Amino acid sequence: MTVAMAGAPAMAADAQAGRARALQCQACHGLDGKSKLPEAPHLAGQNETYLVKALKDYKTGARKDEMMNLMAKPLTDKDIANLAAFYSGLKP
């Protein structure tokens, strides 16, 4: 039996799949996770658990940002985990 650690992502994530999914994120956040726009945060090296929570909150509307709410809405839990693994693994 496996016990998930509190605050840790619940499923094994695939950073390569996250990279592929991040193609839609690159316009604002850059594929390297370093934003080119002042209103979009850098994601490279961000905490993986934080990224998962933020994306889930955007998806449910608990966190409000018109563009991010639209972008996060179709993401599956696996997509979110993969994106978080990808961006957290990048060098800030």
Automatic annotation (TrEMBL):
GO terms for MF: electron transfer activity; heme binding; metal ion binding
Pfam families the UniProt entry points to: Cytochrom_C
The Cytochrome c domain, residue ranges: 13-91
Gene3D superfamilies per the UniProt record, alphabetical: Cytochrome c-like domain
InterPro entries, per the entry: Cyt_c-like_dom, Cyt_c-like_dom_sf, Cytochrome_c_Oxidase_Subunit
Keyword list, A-Z: Electron transport, Heme, Iron, Metal-binding, Transport
PANTHER family associated with the record: CBB3-TYPE CYTOCHROME C OXIDASE SUBUNIT FIXP, CYTOCHROME C4
Protein name: Cytochrome c
Organism (species): Cupriavidus campinensis
Species classification: Bacteria, Pseudomonadati, Pseudomonadota, Betaproteobacteria, Burkholderiales
